[in-house]
Design brief:
Blueprint (H helix, E strand, L loop, with lengths): L19 E10 L8 H21 L3 E11 L2 E10 L19 H17 L7 E9 L11 H13 L3 E6 L4 H7 L5 E3 L4 H22 L10
Parallel strand pairs: 1-2, 1-4, 4-5, 5-6
Antiparallel strand pairs: 2-3
Length: 224
């Protein structure tokens, strides 16, 4: 892939009066240790979609797209293929059954590469912005296709294109885990319903700040 060509738009205010395309990518650890909080993960995933729907009403110039993946053992699963969210298309995760190990690097490499290729395949999406949320309760331990350095280089390149990454971790050294793959935003959460709700809330607040960079000091992207 030629990394010199991208649809990603800079944060310079040029989006203020134009339709933009915002992509939310959520990557969730489905390894065995996530079993105790499986119901809360479903609630959080589907709650994130509801937050995006609310954002659509506030920012009518922003078309919202959603994509989610889970990973465990040898399974890297695209649970919600990339789709545009609207009143007739509201994606919901119906099943979350943890088991197996934590192939974090393979999940990131696979999901990020596919999303970038899909965005590049649509030149009509002239202004694109991407927010990536990674949720895990353990360190990488079983990837076969991607190394940590390969994922780090990929993430650092995408960050230069304006992609935003956030690592939500529990039960491990999250700052070290995030740093190893080039992510500076590392946030901890408790493995409880309240803790998962905190992930959703923090992500929503962070994305609103992201929107404010897309439409700086302007109400043009908002509904009057």
């Amino acid at each position: 892939m030629n990394s010199q060509h991208t649809n990603s738009a800079p944060f310079n205010g040029e989006a203020s009066n134009q339709e933009v395309h915002f992509f939310s990518l959520v990557i969730i650890d489905e390894s065995g240790s996530m079993q105790p909080i499986a119901p809360f993960v479903l609630e959080t995933h589907n709650g994130i979609v509801q937050d995006i729907i609310k954002d659509m009403k506030e920012y009518p110039l922003m078309r919202q797209f959603f994509n989610s993946w889970t990973f465990e053992g040898s399974k890297i699963c695209e649970r919600i293929p990339l789709m545009e969210i609207n009143d007739q298309a509201i994606p919901q995760l119906q099943d979350f059954s943890p088991g197996g190990s934590t192939p974090l690097y393979d999940a990131l490499g696979t999901a990020l590469t596919k999303l970038e290729r899909e965005i590049l395949s649509h030149p009509e999406w002239e202004k694109t912005y991407v927010s990536v949320s990674i949720i895990s309760d353990g360190e990488e331990n079983s990837s076969r296709s991607y190394s940590g350095m390969e994922v780090k280089r990929l993430i650092e390149r995408l960050r230069l294109l304006g992609w935003k990454f956030e690592y939500y971790g529990a039960d491990h050294d999250i700052e070290a885990a995030a740093s190893q793959i080039g992510i500076s935003e590392a946030k901890s959460w408790d493995k409880t319903s309240y803790g998962m709700q905190g992930v959703r809330t923090d992500r929503s607040v962070s994305n609103k700040l992201f929107y404010s960079m897309i439409f700086p000091e302007s109400e043009d992207g908002k509904e009057e």
